[in-house]
Structure prediction request, 132 residues.
Amino acid sequence: MNDQFLTFFILVFFGLVLATGSIDRYNDDQEKRKRKTRTMNRNDYLTLLRDNICVVTFTKRDGTERVMRCTLKTEHLPTPTLHGNLDKKLLELKKTKIFRKPSETSISVWDMDKNAWRGFTLDSVKEIKQES
Prediction:
């Protein structure tokens, strides 16, 4: 009876070891896929968005997933409208210190479906691809 128990124990033990190895390989594959998206830097994203309409999948701050058709192609962006004296408005903006350095961790894009400016953080991007 002891030999049977020992054999059973060894089989279960090695089965767990093999299963754990499979799980580790699966997790490694998931990490590789995530790293592929994260290897793009901010300039890579900007270049892709300036030249194409893209579909970006990312996680919103509330934890939900969002899929957004967006671009930075000039022909799809709204034309800015200025009312009044431009120099006076710029001077007022400079006084209020609204001008700031662009974020290195997020990108503002034109949402093609909502016709509005939207943004996402680079570390939340799961996938970005050109619209076909």
Remarks:
- Residues 55 and 69 are 5 Å apart (CA to CA).
- The longest strand covers residues 53-59.
- Strands lie at 53-59, 65-71, 106-111, 116-121, 125-130.
- The chain has a mean pLDDT of 78.
